[in-house]
Design a protein that fits this description.
7 domains, six-stranded mixed beta sheet, alpha+beta, six-stranded antiparallel beta sheet, about 35% helix, globular, 42 helices, SH3 type barrels, Nucleotidyltransferase, domain 5, disordered N terminus, MutS, DNA mismatch repair protein, domain I
Length: about 1350
C-alpha cells in the first residue's frame, strides 16, 4: 500500500509542544469543551497558522495505535484531495457546525469551500458511511508521537506566535497571517537588505552578512547544510519525508492550458526515472545527502490537475497566439528563434530589480532552465520552478509566484539530474558584490532602481553534449562519450546526373575537448552519415537553417530529441569558413606566444641543447604550423588554402567542414566553453572509414585491400548488436562480452576499435601477438589489471586541470563570479590534481611490473605491446615523466593542500613568491639587528610592539626614555612604557608590507600557475594515456580469450594467387555460450570462397544460399559468422577450433524487419534501401549477409527481386550468406557453379501432410549442405500457440494453392508441347497422360 501524505505535506510543521500534560482519554468518548466527541465525528480542526478546516475524527494508522487521542491531541483526517491526516491539539478542535458559528470564520478560498461542502454532505450520514471515508494509510515516521498542532497555550488566535516559532525564523516556518477579510493571506519571505540600495537580492560574502543572507535563502538554515544530525538522517532514510509540503502552493500547469504549449520549448519531454532505473547523478557524501534532504519534496509531491494556475501563465505575451522571439518574430516566421522570448518593456518596468534581471536573462534563454544565484542559493522562478518541483522534487516556496531553490553546494546534483533528462541548464552567477554595486552606482551618477542590483551573468550553459565536469559539477559515472555535432549540407550539383550530396560535419567531445572536422560526399541512402552517427553518437545536433534536405532532416530527427536539435541562422550563427578562421585567428586559442611556464620550459630546453626531433619523440608531440602569427594545429593547417599566406581562406573541399566548426565555436561561445576547449588544440580531421586511397572501381576489382579499417555502418552495428540490443540495452552485445577494461579511457578506446577493426594483416598480427604474449604471463597480467583498476579517468582529469590552469580572458564571466564555497571548490581542484599525479605515478608502477619479469622484453613478440610498456629512451612510446612527477611531488605539501584547499609552494617553485618571502625574511633579520642596537642604545630591554601596519614600535621602559632623541617619534604609551617609531623602522616596515602584498598576490594565483605548468606537458600525459588505454584494451581482449575456448585466427593476405575466402571450423557465437534451454551452443562450420560449401565439403563458391525451417538458427548463424570475422580483425582470439580468412573490408547486413516511420519508409522500402546500398558499395573483399529478402511484398515480386539481387551479387563476388524461404529461388540457382547450398538441419517426428499439428520438429541447429525441402512454417504457428483449427485450415489452403500452381505449371507445359513442332503427336499424347497422372 502506498504511503499516504501526512498533514505535514500541506502545512508547516509547528514547534514541538510541551508534554507536561499527559494522559490518555477514553478512545471512544472525549469531552471537548462540554461536547462529547467520538470516533468518526465531524469536527473543525485547526493547525496553527492556517484556517479552520473540516475533518473527521479517526484512529492513527500506526500499528499499535487504536485510539484517536494521544497526549491531549486528537487524530483527524481532513477533507482534502487526496485525504490528509494529523494530530491536532484538543483546544483547536471544535464540533462541526455551519461556518460563521462558534467562532469559525468564512473563507472564499476554493479548496476550503470544496472541503466544507464535502463535510456538509456527510453531516447527516451515519458512522458507517463516515468510516468508509477513512483512507487506511501506512504511518509516516513518528506517527503517534509527533508533536503537531496549535500554540502552546491552546490559543485560537492566529495573530500570535510561540517563542519556538520565532526562533525558527531562518527555517521559514513562520505562520501565515490572515488579512482583514478573513482570507488566508499569502505568505512572503522577509528580505533583509544588505545595503541602502533597493536591491532585494544583494550578496556580501563576509561574516557580517551571513545571517542576513540566510533570510534570502530557500528556507534552510546554513547549519543544516553542514550538521549531520539524527533528524536529517531520518528524513533521508524515510520512504516518505516529513518535510512540509504546502498544499496552497501546489500549483501546476493545467493539462489543456494553452499556456503549456508556449512553454513546450523549455525542455524536451522526458519520462521521470523509476526507482529501478534512477537517472545517473554525481555521487555525494552522506553529509551532503542529509543536508539536501530539507530541499527534497516527498514522493507524494505530485502536481494535481485541480490546483490553481500561477500568475505567469496568464501573461498575454506568453500565450501561443501572442508569443514572439526577441526579434518580435512569430513561430510561423521562417527565421523564428525558439531559444529566445519577447518580454514587453511595460512588463519589465513593473518588476522588482532582481525579477527584471531574471526575465531579461530568460528572454535570451527561453529554452533553458535558469539556476539563478541569489546569495548562497540557486533559485528557480516561474516555469523553471514548476519544472524543478516536478523533475527534482524541490519544495515550492511560499509566495504568489512559483519559486524554488537549493544551496550552492547542490548545483552538481540537481543540474546533472535535469541534464540527464534532456534539459538545458544555465548557471547564472553574481558577478558583483553589494559594495561593488554601490561604487558602480556612484560613478553612474543618476542610477535608477534597476541599476541598484548586483550584476548577474550566465557563466555556463550545459546540456548532455556540453558537459565538462568542472569543480562545480559532480563526478561522472558514465564513461561513454557525448558529442555535440554540427552539420550542413550541399545538394547535388546541377547536371551531374548523380544523386549525391555533400556534407560538412564537425563534432566535439566536450569532456575531453577533442574536435573532429570533416567533409564528404554521400549516396542517396546517406550511408556515410548514418555510419558517422553510429560511430560517434550525438546527444545534440546543430543544423544550418534551410540547408538540410528532407531526408537528412528525417534522419537527424530520428537520432536526437527535437529539443536538442538546434537550428542556427546562416552566417550569423552558423558561420562561414572564412568567418570561422577569422574568429580563431583573432582569439587566444592558437596564438604563437607561450603561456606562463611554457616559455621558461622552451628556454631551459634550448640551453640544454636538446634537439627538436628528440623533444617531439619524448613528448609524442605534433607540431603546430605557424602562419601569420597563429600556430595552427597541423590537421587544421591542411584545410587552409595554400595561396592565402594569412591563413584565413579554406580549401574548397574543406569549406563545409570549417563552416560546421564555426557553428560549434558559436554554440560553445554561447555556453561560455569555447576558450577552455579550443585552447587544448586537440583537433583531428574526420574521414569516412570507407574512404578509398584509390578509385572505387579499382577497389572493387583489386586483389589487395586498400583500406586501413573495416567499415561497419550504422545498420550493421545495429543488426549485429555490437553496442545495443534490440531492446535498447547492452545485455548480450559484443561490447558487453568483450569489455573487461579496467579504466574509463580504456573502455572508450575499445568502442573505437570495435567501430573500426583493422584491415591490414600486419596491424592485426601485432595485436594478436600482444594478446598471445599477455596470455603467457598471467601473473604480470593480474598485477597490471589491479593497478589499472586504481586509475581515475585521467583523460577527463587532464581536461579539468587544463581548465583550472587556464588564464581566462577577462571577458569570461566566471572570472568575476562570486562563490560562497570557494574553499570547498579549491579543495576539489587540488584533489583532482593530486588524483592526476597519483594516477601517473601508478602508470610508472605498471611499467615496472613488466620490467620485473626476467628478460621479458626478449620474450615478447609483439611490437605493439613493447611500445606500450617501454620508455622512449629504450625505443618505446611511453614518455619519460619521472622528472615531471618528482617536481610536482616536492612543489608543495600535498596533505596540507588537500585538507585546506590551498597551495603553499616550496622554495624554487615560484619565482615571485620566493622573492617576496626572501625579502620578508631578510627585512625581519634587519629589524632584529636594529632591535639589538636599540637595546644597547637605551641600556635596557627594548621590545617590538604592535600588529598589522603598526608593527615594530619600540616599547621602551619609562626610566630609559630620556635617551630618546628627536629621531624617535612617540606613537603611544602605557603605564611604565612608551612606544616609538623611527624612520628606519618605518622604511623597513614598508618593505615588509609591500613584500607581503606581493606574496599574497602570488599565492592567489599559485594554484592556477602550478596547474598550468602541469598542463604544459600535456603531450607527455596524452602519450601516457595512449599507452595505458592500448594496454588496457589488449588485457581486456586477453581476458576474453581466457574465458572461452578460443583459437588464434589466421589472417591471410590477399594477392593474385589467393582469392578472398573465409573458413571457420566449430565456430561459436561470441556472445552466446548456451541456448535458452540451458544446452550448450552448437558449433558450426562455414566456408566461403576458395574451397567453399557447408559442412566442410569442397565445392568452391563465395555465395551460399541458406535454407531451413523457421526458428532453425539461420539468422543466428549469419550474425555469428560476421562477429567471428570482426573479432579476428579486431585482434582477438575467436571461439572456434580453427579460423582462417582473408581480410574483410566491409560487412553488410540485411537482417530483421523494421520500418522507419519518422522517415516515411515502410518495412519493404527499408529492405530495398539497405540492399541497394550493398549493391553500390560491396567489393570482392566484403562480407554480405542477407536474410529473407523480398518477404515484405507479394511472393512473385519478392522472388523476382531476390533473384535479381542474387545475380548481381554473383557478379560482384563478395563472400555472401543469403537465406531464403523461396524454394523456387533455390531451384533456379541450385546448379550454378558459384553457388553452394546449405541448410539448418532439423528432425521431424510424426510427419503428417494431412494434419501438421501432429508433427513434432526438433531443431538441430547444425549447418549442413544441401537445401531444406520445406520451411515448416506451420510448426512456427504451433509454437506461437495459434488455434489448431486455424493451423489445419491453413494447411488445407496451402495444399489447394500447391495444386493450383501445379495445374498452372502443367497447363503451360502442355501448351508449350502443342506449339513445339519437333514433338510428334504420339509423343505429345504420352506427355499429356504423364502430366495428368502427376496431377492426380
Amino acid at each position: 500500500m502506498a504511503k499516504q501524505a501526512s498533514i505535514y505535506n500541506f502545512f508547516t510543521k509547528s514547534p514541538a509542544a510541551n508534554n507536561n500534560n499527559s494522559g490518555n482519554n477514553d478512545k471512544n468518548n472525549l469531552k471537548l469543551k462540554g461536547t462529547s466527541v467520538c470516533e468518526f465525528d465531524l469536527v473543525w480542526a485547526k493547525l496553527e497558522g492556517y484556517p479552520w478546516w473540516p475533518a473527521v475524527v479517526c484512529s492513527s494508522p500506526g500499528e499499535n495505535n487504536t485510539s484517536f487521542t494521544h497526549k491531549n491531541k486528537i487524530h483527524v483526517q481532513f477533507f482534502d484531495t487526496p485525504p490528509t491526516r494529523g494530530w491536532v491539539k484538543e483546544t483547536l478542535v471544535k464540533s462541526f457546525c455551519a461556518p460563521g458559528n462558534k467562532g469559525i470564520p468564512t473563507y472564499k478560498d476554493t479548496n476550503w469551500v470544496k472541503a466544507v461542502k464535502q463535510a456538509q454532505k456527510m453531516e447527516g450520514s451515519g458512522s458507517e458511511d463516515r468510516e468508509a471515508l477513512i483512507v487506511h494509510m501506512l504511518p509516516t515516521d513518528g506517527d503517534g508521537s509527533e508533536d503537531v498542532g496549535g500554540s502552546e497555550d491552546g490559543s485560537e488566535d492566529d495573530g500570535g506566535g510561540s517563542e519556538d516559532e520565532s526562533d525558527n525564523s531562518k527555517e521559514n516556518k513562520r505562520r501565515t497571517p490572515e488579512n482583514k477579510n478573513g482570507e488566508p493571506k499569502n505568505k512572503r519571505r522577509r528580505i533583509i537588505l544588505c545595503s541602502d540600495s533597493e536591491s532585494e537580492d544583494d550578496y556580501k560574502p563576509d561574516k557580517e552578512s551571513e545571517s542576513e543572507d540566510e533570510s534570502v535563502s530557500s528556507g534552510v538554515d546554513e547549519n543544516q547544510l553542514t550538521d549531520n544530525s539524527h533528524e536529517t538522517h531520518s528524513e533521508m532514510d524515510s520512504p516518505v519525508k516529513e518535510t512540509p509540503k504546502f498544499k496552497k502552493f501546489k500549483k501546476s500547469l493545467p493539462e489543456k492550458s494553452p499556456s503549456l504549449k508556449c512553454l513546450s520549448s523549455v525542455a524536451k519531454s522526458s519520462v521521470s526515472a523509476s526507482p529501478s532505473n534512477p537517472p545517473s547523478s554525481p555521487k555525494v557524501s552522506s553529509v551532503t545527502k542529509s543536508s539536501l534532504a530539507a530541499f527534497a519534496a516527498t514522493k507524494e509531491a505530485v502536481v494535481t490537475e485541480d490546483s490553481e494556475d500561477w500568475p505567469y501563465l496568464h501573461n498575454p505575451w506568453l500565450q501561443p497566439d501572442n508569443i514572439k522571439d526577441r526579434d518580435h518574430k512569430r513561430p510561423t516566421h521562417p527565421d523564428y528563434n525558439k531559444r529566445t522570448l519577447h518580454v514587453p518593456d511595460a512588463f519589465l518596468n513593473k518588476q522588482t530589480p532582481g525579477m527584471r534581471q531574471w526575465w531579461e536573462l530568460k528572454s535570451r534563454h527561453f529554452d533553458t532552465v535558469l539556476f539563478f544565484k541569489m546569495g548562497k542559493f540557486y533559485e528557480l522562478f516561474h516555469m523553471d520552478a514548476v519544472l524543478g518541483v516536478q523533475e527534482l522534487g524541490l519544495l515550492m516556496m511560499k509566495g504568489d509566484n512559483a519559486h524554488a531553490g537549493f544551496p550552492e553546494i547542490a548545483y552538481g546534483r540537481y543540474s546533472a539530474t535535469l541534464i540527464d533528462k534532456g534539459y538545458k541548464v544555465a548557471r547564472i552567477e553574481q558577478t558583483e558584490t553589494p559594495d561593488m554595486m554601490e561604487k558602480r552606482c556612484k560613478k553612474m551618477g543618476g542610477a535608477s532602481k534597476f541599476d541598484r542590483v548586483v550584476r548577474r551573468e550566465v557563466c555556463q550553459v550545459t546540456t548532455k553534449a556540453t558537459r565538462v565536469y568542472s569543480f562545480l559539477d559532480g563526478d561522472d559515472a558514465n564513461t561513454q562519450t557525448s558529442h555535440l555535432l554540427a552539420i550542413t549540407e550541399r545538394g547535388p550539383s546541377g547536371g551531374s546526373g548523380v544523386d549525391v550530396c555533400e556534407f560538412g560535419v564537425a563534432f566535439v567531445d566536450a569532456s575531453t575537448a577533442l574536435f573532429h572536422v570533416g567533409q564528404f560526399t554521400d549516396d542517396t541512402h546517406l550511408s556515410r552519415l548514418r555510419t558517422l552517427l553510429a560511430h560517434y553518437p550525438a546527444d545534440q545536433v546543430l543544423v544550418e537553417r534551410g540547408k538540410l534536405s528532407h531526408k537528412t532532416n528525417a534522419l537527424i530527427n530520428s537520432t536526437v530529441s527535437p529539443s536538442l536539435k538546434e537550428t542556427l541562422m546562416p552566417d550569423k550563427e552558423f558561420w562561414s569558413a572564412g568567418k570561422t578562421l577569422a574568429f580563431l585567428a583573432d582569439g587566444p586559442y592558437f596564438n604563437t606566444h607561450t603561456d606562463d611556464g611554457e616559455k621558461e620550459e622552451e628556454e631551459e630546453e634550448g640551453k640544454n641543447g636538446e634537439k627538436k626531433k628528440k623533444k617531439e619523440r619524448e613528448n609524442g608531440e605534433k607540431k603546430c604550423i605557424k602562419t601569420g602569427g597563429i600556430a595552427w594545429p597541423e590537421e587544421l593547417k591542411l584545410m587552409l588554402d595554400e595561396g592565402d599566406h594569412l591563413g584565413l581562406t579554406a580549401r574548397i573541399e574543406c569549406e563545409l567542414g570549417l563552416s560546421s566548426l564555426g557553428a560549434l565555436v558559436w554554440y560553445l561561445q554561447e555556453c561560455c566553453l569555447e576558450e577552455q576547449l579550443l585552447t587544448r588544440r586537440r583537433l583531428s580531421r574526420y574521414l569516412p572509414k570507407d574512404t578509398h586511397t584509390h578509385t572505387h572501381a579499382h577497389a572493387r576489382t583489386s586483389s589487395a585491400i586498400t583500406r586501413h579499417y573495416m567499415v561497419l555502418d550504422g545498420i550493421t552495428l545495429k543488426n549485429l548488436e555490437i553496442f545495443e540490443n534490440s531492446s535498447g540495452g547492452t545485455e548480450g552485445t559484443l561490447m558487453e562480452r568483450l569489455d573487461n577494461c579496467s579504466t574509463p579511457f580504456g573502455k572508450r578506446l575499445l568502442r573505437r576499435w570495435l567501430c573500426a577493426p583493422l584491415c591490414q594483416p600486419a596491424g592485426i598480427h601485432s595485436r594478436l601477438q600482444a594478446v598471445t604474449d599477455l596470455r603467457t604471463h598471467t601473473d604480470t597480467l593480474q598485477q597490471a589489471t589491479r593497478l589499472l583498476k586504481s586509475l581515475p579517468d585521467l583523460e577527463r582529469i587532464l581536461a579539468k586541470v587544463h581548465t583550472q590552469g587556464l588564464k581566462r580572458q577577462s571577458t569570461h564571466p566566471d572570472t568575476r563570479a562570486v562563490f560562497y564555497e570557494d574553499i570547498k571548490y579549491n579543495r576539489k581542484k587540488v584533489v583532482d590534481f593530486l588524483a592526476a599525479l597519483n594516477g601517473f605515478k601508478t602508470t610508472l608502477e605498471i611499467i615496472d611490473t613488466f620490467k620485473d619479469i626476467t628478460d621479458i622484453i626478449g620474450t615478447l613478440t609483439s611490437n605493439l605491446l613493447k611500445s606500450c610498456i617501454t620508455t622512449t629512451d629504450n625505443g618505446g612510446n611511453f614518455p619519460l615523466i619521472h622528472k615531471d612527477l618528482n617536481f610536482f611531488d616536492t612543489a608543495f605539501n600535498h596533505n596540507e593542500a588537500r585538507s585546506e584547499g590551498k597551495i603553499i609552494p616550496s622554495r624554487g617553485v615560484d619565482v615571485d613568491y620566493d622573492a617576496a618571502v626572501t625579502t620578508i625574511n631578510n627585512t625581519k633579520l634587519q629589524l632584529q639587528d636594529y632591535l639589538k642596537l636599540q637595546c644597547t642604545h637605551f641600556g635596557t630591554k627594548v621590545e617590538y610592539w604592535g600588529n598589522d601596519k603598526k608593527r615594530y614600535q619600540l616599547q621602551v621602559p619609562d626610566h630609559a626614555c630620556k635617551k630618546a632623541t628627536d629621531e624617535y617619534e612617540l606613537t603611544n604609551q602605557k603605564k611604565g612604557y612608551k612606544r616609538y617609531w623611527t624612520t628606519h623602522i618605518q622604511t623597513l616596515l614598508n618593505v615588509i608590507l609591500n613584500a607581503e602584498q606581493q606574496r599574497n598576490i602570488a599565492l592567489t594565483d599559485i594554484a592556477r600557475r602550478i596547474f598550468n605548468q602541469f598542463d604544459q606537458s600535456y603531450k607527455k600525459w596524452e602519450s601516457v594515456l595512449e599507452c595505458m588505454s592500448v594496454l588496457d584494451v589488449l588485457i581486456s581482449l586477453t581476458r576474453y580469450s581466457q574465458q572461452t575456448n578460443t583459437v588464434l585466427p589466421d589472417i591471410v593476405n590477399t594477392h593474385a594467387d589467393v582469392q578472398p575466402f573465409l573458413e571457420i571450423k566449430d565456430g561459436l557465437h561470441p556472445c552466446v555460450t548456451s541456448t535458452l534451454s540451458g544446452d550448450e551452443f552448437i558449433p558450426n562450420d562455414i566456408r566461403l570462397g576458395g574451397v567453399g560449401g557447408a559442412g566442410g565439403s569442397d565445392g568452391g563458391g563465395a555465395f551460399t544460399l541458406v535454407t531451413g525451417p523457421n526458428m532453425g538458427g539461420k539468422s543466428t548463424l549469419m550474425r555469428q559468422t560476421a562477429l567471428l570475422c570482426l573479432l579476428a580483425q579486431l585482434g582477438s582470439y575467436v571461439p572456434a577450433s580453427s579460423c582462417r580468412l582473408t581480410p574483410i573490408d566491409r560487412v553488410f547486413t540485411r537482417l530483421g524487419t523494421s520500418d522507419q516511420i519518422m522517415q516515411g519508409q515502410s518495412t519493404f522500402l527499408v529492405e530495398l534501401a539497405e540492399t541497394s546500398s550493398i549493391l553500390q558499395h560491396a567489393t570482392q573483399h566484403s562480407l554480405v549477409l542477407i536474410d529473407e529478402l523480398g518477404r515484405g511484398t507479394a511472393s512473385y515480386d519478392g522472388t523476382a527481386i531476390a533473384s535479381g539481387v542474387v545475380e548481381a551479387l554473383l557478379t560482384l563476388a563478395p563472400r555472401t550468406l543469403f537465406s531464403t524461404h523461396y524454394h523456387s529461388l533455390v531451384d533456379d540457382f541450385a546448379n550454378h557453379h558459384k553457388v553452394t547450398l546449405g541448410h539448418m538441419a532439423c528432425m521431424v517426428e510424426g510427419e503428417n501432410e494431412d494434419d501438421p499439428t501432429q508433427e513434432h520438429i526438433t531443431f538441430l541447429y547444425k549447418f549442413t549442405e544441401g537445401a531444406c525441402p520445406k520451411s515448416y512454417g506451420f510448426n512456427a504457428a504451433l509454437l506461437a500457440d495459434l488455434p489448431r483449427a486455424v493451423i489445419r485450415a491453413g494447411s488445407d489452403k496451402a495444399k489447394r494453392l500447391e495444386k493450383t500452381n501445379a495445374r498452372k505449371h502443367a497447363f503451360r507445359k502442355m501448351f508449350a508441347l502443342s506449339n513445339d513442332n519437333n514433338v510428334t503427336r504420339p509423343k505429345a499424347l504420352r506427355e499429356y497422360i504423364n502430366i495428368i497422372k502427376h496431377l492426380e
